[in-house]
Specification:
This protein is an alpha+beta fold. It folds into two domains: about 1-135, 2,3-Dihydroxybiphenyl 1,2-Dioxygenase, domain 1 (Roll); about 135-248. The protein has helices spanning about 15-25, 75-90, 140-155, 160-170, 175-195, 200-210, 215-225, 230-240; strands at about 10, 30-35, 40-45, 45-55, 65-70, 100, 105, 110-115, 120-125. The strands form two sheets. Strands 5, 6, 7, 8 and 9 form a five-stranded mixed beta sheet that branches. It has a four-stranded mixed beta sheet with strand order 1-4-3-2, covered by helices on one side. The radius of gyration is 20 Å and the shape is elongated. This is Glyoxalase-like domain-containing protein.
Length: about 250
């Protein structure tokens, strides 16, 4: 029947914080109530999410999750990045909240995840796709990258994802350079999330890009990756500091 809709109902500790976060993503508040129980509905195009506040709620313990299908995950991800950067001054990539990088297949974004201020996972997929789309289709290092993405992006286990990539890079030293580049960038992102120095991986990826013709998409991917790295790590990677910019 037409007109039927499903609203995921997600908890949060503070309704105002949740509404501010979803507003940064581009959602608009279509309903809210403060008493007796604080709750609201936020909407973006055909996406509608119901939020409710719980006193004493711990976002770190949330099991809330929603699967959302969209026509163009890449465009949606870029819009979210821009909104979060404007709201927070940077794109949060670790902790709560955070925006995870897009999952890609053949250079095309197939999906991504957002963790909101309530610790709830919003899992965005390209309409008609799923996490299993690449299962069995790639081999070697490519398959290791896909497995790592399921661990890090779908399940939130960044440490296990790094371990999978470490093993894959060791096991497949002769893998295609574009796959090595992809693995290095993803491991750099995972290291940023876990507070580990990502500069060596970014430097290695940059060297691969300079040595081999990996294409414009690889250049854009490296640029996006560098933007997520804390300033101190960028200085370490380039060997420069703020003092280098000051006149002696």
């Amino acid at each position: 029947m037409s007109g039927e809709r499903t609203y995921p109902v997600l908890p949060c500790a503070d309704l105002d914080d949740a509404l501010a976060f979803y507003s940064a993503l581009g959602f608009v508040v279509s309903f809210q109530r403060r008493r007796p129980n604080p709750c609201a509905v936020v909407e973006l195009d055909d996406i509608a999410i119901h939020l409710f506040a719980m006193a004493g709620f711990d976002p770190g313990s949330s099991y809330g999750s929603a699967i959302i299908t969209v026509a163009e995950p890449g465009a949606r991800h870029e819009a979210f990045r821009a909104g979060l950067r404007e709201r927070y001054g940077k794109v949060p990539v670790k902790g709560i909240p955070r925006l995870l990088p897009p999952r890609r297949k053949a250079g095309t974004a197939t999906g991504f995840s957002v963790v909101d201020v309530g610790g709830n996972w919003l899992r965005f997929y390209r309409d008609g796709s799923s996490d299993d789309d690449t299962a069995g289709r790639r081999s070697g290092l490519g398959r290791a990258i896909d497995v790592a993405a399921r661990q890090g992006d779908a399940r939130g286990d960044d440490a296990q994802a790094i371990a999978v990539l470490d093993a894959g890079l060791l096991r497949h030293p002769d893998a295609p350079r574009i796959e090595v580049f992809e693995a290095l960038l993803y491991r750099a992102d995972l290291r940023v999330r876990t507070g580990v120095d990502a500069a060596p991986d970014l430097a290695a990826a940059s060297a691969l890009l300079a040595e081999h013709r990996l294409g414009a998409e690889a250049e854009r991917a490296l640029k996006r990756a560098v933007e997520t790295v804390p300033v101190a790590e960028q200085q370490h990677r380039t060997g420069r500091s703020d003092d280098d910019e000051r006149p002696g």
